[in-house]
Design goal:
By secondary structure, this protein is of the alpha+beta class. The chain is 66% helix and 6% strand.
């Protein structure tokens, strides 16, 4: 008999990882103490959810090919197509189309905006040192424009307001973003977030990922220059803004409090990192296990 269980398992995994999990994880605040492991969990869960959805139709086809029994269908004789195959095909096709559309729209928009902003910054910058550009503006702002020709942008107001150690902490934070290509991580999450229909997604999920990325860059800066200069820089730069498509903090007072409270954890490893990474591995393997089950069922 046609085994629908592996197909249903893949479909349930896809729904849980792409819809339910992004609604649950933003409330698990202790993950902020280990941002690297937390981002790995988010990233693998998102990828596994999409993969499970894309595998649903192939799993149904494999199960159909390897069986020979009669099953409930939605078509009259002589065409007999299992209902599970139809549902699986709709899920896989819908996910593929929405994913491609979301990736195209978000990717093209981000790259066009960053390219335009880099050109503007290069023209108006009063100082240029390597990838760093200083813009002659009295306000305080610090952000990076990631990409193959990345830029770290500071205003003159920022340079004047910070001590030398604090300025070094800000630069270390922004260079952590550009060197580790955190923009690609955020773009990946944004594409997955927008792929899910609006009534089913939770905006707090994307905001939490952005916060984890900032915490990850804070960790790199704290280990490079120390927690005190970084804390002073965070307090001094509170409430600053950055252009669209740039990478920088924009969470206001609530984000500042979270980042300041996380400072002591940046110089040590949190014990929960190991179980989080173990859970990440299990989630990443789940779609492949269910696909193998469909083949051998």
């Amino acid at each position: 008999m046609f085994s629908a269980l592996p197909v249903l398992a893949l479909a349930a995994t896809a729904i849980f990882l792409t819809v339910a999990m992004p609604r649950l994880l933003p409330d698990v605040h202790w993950l902020r103490r280990t941002p690297g492991a937390a981002l790995a969990l988010w990233q693998v869960a998102g990828a596994a959810g999409v993969l499970a959805a894309l595998m649903t139709a192939p799993a149904a086809a494999i199960a159909l090919i390897t069986e020979g029994a009669r099953v409930p269908t939605i078509f009259p004789e002589p065409v007999r197509v299992p209902l599970a195959v139809v549902v699986a095909s709709i899920m896989t096709g819908g996910m593929a189309l929405m994913l491609l559309r979301s990736a195209h729209l978000i990717g093209s928009d981000l790259r066009a905006n960053r390219r335009a902003q880099r050109n503007v910054v290069d023209v108006v910058a009063s100082r240029a040192e390597g990838r760093v550009r200083v813009v002659d503006h009295p306000g305080r702002s610090a952000y990076c424009l990631p990409g193959l020709r990345s830029r770290v942008v500071l205003t003159k107001g920022t340079v004047d307001a910070l001590t030398e150690d604090q300025l070094e902490a800000v630069l270390a934070h922004e260079h952590a973003h550009t060197n580790a290509r955190h923009d690609l991580m955020l773009e990946f999450f944004t594409v997955l977030h927008r792929t899910v229909p609006k009534p089913l997604r939770r905006d707090e999920a994307l905001a939490e990922v952005r916060l984890l990325v900032e915490l990850l860059a804070d960790r790199r800066a704290a280990r490079q220059v120390g927690t005190e200069p970084l804390g002073g820089a965070l307090a001094a730069m509170a409430g600053t803004t950055h252009p669209h498509a740039a990478l920088g903090s924009s969470g206001g007072a609530s984000e500042l409090i979270v980042r300041l409270r996380a400072l002591p954890w940046h110089v040590q490893r949190h014990p929960t990192a190991v179980p989080v990474l173990a859970s990440t591995a299990v989630i990443g393997l789940a779609p492949w296990v269910f696909l193998t089950w469909a083949f051998w069922a």
